[in-house]
Amino acid sequence: MTMSVNKRIARRAGVGLTALAAMACSAALTAPYASAVPTGLSVNARNIYAACTYEITANVDHWFEVWFHDSGRVIPGSPVKPSNGKATIQWTPKGAGTHTLAALQGSAWELKVNVLQPTLTGSATCGAGPLGFLGS
């Protein structure tokens, strides 16, 4: 009788330890993601025009990859590996209007920008031509 009681106690202890180990592993695997938080988001221009390419930079506090989104759509080139606390991607807005840019790395940081319709043809609006100052 003593032998079967000891086996039951050992079995219960084993199940309890297994459950405790599973919870500890789960916490260890998910904890870094909870602390990965973008701390800022910026675009390298004051005036932003459709069909021009800009650089979006997210300040981050972790080495996890950063996903960039434009109004809910993944920006091509995502995800990006951060370097020295920053993740950068090239972005070309397809149309004029309000765009919500987001950087996601565990949680998200959003920035609303107003994209303007180009006023000149060619690269001058984007800042590459002789009148490039008009587009920045």
From TrEMBL:
Keywords for the protein's UniProt record, in alphabetical order: Signal
Residues spanning the signal sequence: 1-36
Name this polypeptide is given: NocE
